[in-house]
Design a protein that fits this description.
Length: 82
């Protein structure tokens, strides 16, 4: 599932430089870029509509990258009769 920032076009990553990092960037720091602003493109209305139908609750951080995606866990119902 997408995080709220990812839903808004913001992509996050950890800086993997160990030496010669760009000014203001430290190794392992979280960096972000608004891809929509960077490309000058608006959010596609069709995609925006699809995203409104996807649940927003992330309750399992062991799934996903922890920056842009996360997981949603639930107990599956057993409809069998025994």
């Amino acid at each position: 599932m997408l995080t709220s920032s990812a839903r808004n076009g913001i992509f996050q990553w950890r800086a993997d430089c160990t030496t010669n990092c760009p000014t203001g960037v430290t190794p392992g720091s979280i960096q972000s870029l608004n891809l929509l602003t960077y490309t000058g493109l608006p959010m596609d209305p069709f995609i925006s509509g699809l995203l409104t139908q996807v649940p927003t609750t992330i309750n399992n951080t062991s799934i996903g990258d922890g920056l842009n995606t996360g997981g949603y866990s639930f107990n599956q119902r057993d409809n069998t009769r025994g």
